Amino acid sequence: MKRPIAGTSGSAQRAERAGRSRRRLAAFGLAAAAALSLAWASGVISLPWTHDLDFQPSIKPQEMPVDPPEGSVPTTGIALDGTRQTADRLANPAAADTASLRRGSQDFRIYCTPCHGKGGQGDGTVAGKLAIPPANLTDATLQGARTDGSIYFTIRHGNVIMPSYAYALPPERAWDVVNYVRSLRGK
Q1: Which of 9, 57, 94, 122 could be a cystine partner for 134, CB 3.0 to 4.6 Å?
Q2: Sequence-distant contacts of 19-24: CB under 8 A, at least 24 apart
């Protein structure tokens, strides 16, 4: 049993002890909250979904992204481009107007410039690292040998060394790139 404090009544002593007890409890609660906050911030404890980005597939440069699940349909519908053998028969639905050339130029800069170069001459920044050099898209012989449908199909589905850009360029934008590539002829 604790000794009474001199000069205080019993109820005052109980109030004093209760006050100390509350202060200790508050200090303990504050310390616990600080420890939990520190543990949360440092990653020692976390919720299961906070690590979703740690275990996701990553796409390396020049690597194709993961295909969508089997049977899924894009919101714009399925583009039926045919086969490489029938690509020459595809007709370009996009008029080669200023707006189409501008859009095609923007997409060309994003997707084609690394290999084909700014002017389309096959002298892009990664061209020297490739086993087979990229095509010179300004070459009149190459341009004359390829139909719009053939160029479109190559953009959308790739070829021996060129990757497919169907994941990034819907048909409308791929036709804009075709129009832009045609504008490079002889430059």
Answers
A1: 122
A2: none
43-61 pLDDT, tens digit per residue, is 777 776 666 667 776 777 7
Determine the Cα–Cα distance for residues 179 and 138; give it in Å rounded to an integer: 13
Residue type, 145: A
pLDDT in tens, 63-119: 766 677 788 877 777 778 889 899 999 999 999 999 999 999 999 999 999 999 999
Cβ neighbours of 130 (radius 10 Å): 14
Please tell me the distance from the alpha carbon of residue 120 to that of residue 56, in angstroms, as a whole number: 35
The CA–CA distances, whole Å, from 95 to 91, 148, 149, 150 equal 11, 12, 14, 17
Residue type, 105: S
User: What CATH topology corresponds to 84-183?
Assistant: Cytochrome Bc1 Complex; Chain D, domain 2 (1.10.760)
